[in-house]
Amino acid sequence: MSARPHKRLGGSTLRARLMLLAVCAILLAPARALAHDYLHGDLQVIHPAIPALAAPGGPWPVHMVIANDGAVADRLLAIETEFGPVRLRRPNATGGSDALAWLALPPGETVVLTTGETEGWIAEVPRALIVGEQVSGTLVFERAGRLPMVFLIDPAPETAALPVAIAREDAGAPDAGTQRDPGEDIVAIAAALSRATSGDARAVAPVVLQGDVALAGFRTGEATALAFLRFVPDAGWHVVLWSNDSLLLPASLIGLGVSRPAAERLISEARARIDAAGGAFAAALGRFPGTAYPSTPD
């Protein structure tokens, strides 16, 4: 089975879902990392991706994680790409695989689309796929409807797990040669949010890293908020505060000790990710009432 329960993003369930982001190659531009995902009603689509391909060929896999945070089941009816439809298959006991007409998304569960579990395949890719580019697509859900989106082109499997150097540009930060796995950073950020909110943080997205500081959107109860986090050597990521879209003002981050260039880059990337999440997310973020702090040191 490729479905995993996830009543709340906390504890082992939190790590299980977000470690999938580490398994997927979370693409980095210089000095930043971001989690590529979509919020679509009660559904969260995490890092839809296609491995790089040196020359035209097929069949070729697609990968993603879909979490149903609602109380009602849904079904993924189709995955459309600019190269044609994605065919769904599931390994069987005989060593082969069976075709699937649709993919069940039970309430409160997370479904993984990856090689060796439930699989998605494009019959033929007519061109090379270069790491970092995007391929347009649409997910079609029975209840949630159509979700236009993009697949990111990840490194091929033999290079996807290599650690990535994250540049540190703030004064006093480790030098740019320091190695840190961005997937582990995102896991640690989500865990820190869970601790700071007594387990209430869920649907953690988007996450944008800039050296040793980060912004992370999340839902808590009926509210949507944006958290500011800082990485402390030998202590890890901790939540400083969470607030509304006022954190997207340079003065807010500069007041928290972030250099102006780093603040501007962080805000630019965060705004792009929030815009990609849709107007409802941005509107909900703007309604968050003020600023909150962890009740106990994180």
From TrEMBL:
Keyword Signal part of the UniProt annotation: yes
Protein keywords: Signal
Signal sequence, start to end: 1-35
Record's keyword annotation contains Signal: yes
Origin superkingdom: Bacteria
InterPro entries linked to this entry: LpqE-like (IPR007410), PCuAC_sf (IPR036182)
Gene3D superfamilies tied to this protein: PCu(A)C copper chaperone (2.60.40.1890)
Name under which the protein is recorded: Copper chaperone PCu(A)C
